[in-house]
Please model this.
Amino acid sequence: MSTDTNTMPSGPIPVVSQATEPNGERGRPLPWAQTSAQALPTERRSAPANSVIDCDIHNEAPSLDALLPYLAEHWRDYIQESAFRGPHANDYPRGAPTSARPGSIPPDGGPAGSRLQLVQEQVLTPWGTEIGILNCSYRVQSVKQEDLAADLATAINRWQIDEWLAPEARLRGSLVVPSQTPARAAEEIQRFGDHPQYVQAILPVRSYIPYGNRFYDPLYAAAVEQDLVVGIHYGGAPGHPPTPVGWPSTYLEEHAGMAQVFQSQVISIIAEGVFDRFPHLRVALIEGGFAWMPSLMWRLDKEWKGLRSNTPWVRRSPSDYIRQHMRLTIQPLGAPPDPQYIAQTIEQLESDTMLMFATDYPHWHYDRDEEAWPVTLPEPLNANIWSENARAFYRL
Model:
């Protein structure tokens, strides 16, 4: 993978325009799409002038029953006898307002993100999306029975092909892998890695041990061999508290505090030399925001200069590795409300290739599409964020 050339212009980044009121519909209706009774109003702004690649669309299994045809008979018997209902990290509590935008829950009551038709109606067509990358939050990592976790991963990956990827050419998929057993995760990557619509293996940001540990090397080796991105995504239920100081009392604390878990994983991956062991590895940080990254790079670079004897395998400044190997999706935005300050945050990244557009559908982070990315930046930076960074990073 080539090194980031950092083509940022000198001086402050000007804000070309800010979001305005909706002024028309976007895209054309799919010929096979039906209008949902619960769908949001279709009055929207015009589609972005640039191509759109959405790097975070959630697809969820409606229930464990949907996976039974993909499981061996003995697992079907076990599920019936034990009343096992599938892995569930409760990353998105059903009643939390941020978990599901209005209209995203199917009329039959399944989870938000479980109906392809609604994704087509509410995301792909309105945004004029060229490519949408699915991130299935099926947390097999929380299943302690190793064989069951691995077989559930295979089942959901086959289900994704049949129910999402085959019917919709605009979608790309993320492999669910049992990362708690990296050898089995590597087998899953090898099993599906050559499928043309799978572009990454997805891991929850909360893990049993930090992702820089050599424990995960078999997983990384398989991802590199299959030319897949490793996506580290919001959530997970490894059994540890989600904060360094113990269990929080509220979902607000856990939700807002997930950024510190992302930072911990970035520090681990850099300090433990993952990118020196795997120089072609690509890592996407998904649904963690990005405004925290400049200060983390500054801090890491400063401390590395004084403590580099601790990590002689880290041969370059941490920020160099981050800019070359890592990308971040923009939602949830978590940035200053003034678009000019958003531009300043991007300038502090010192790279025009690090950010990738995402709606994080069906999660509710904004009321109008204009608020998903409320600033238009100079070209080519603007086009890079909307589509071209993702196109290059995911080899689309």
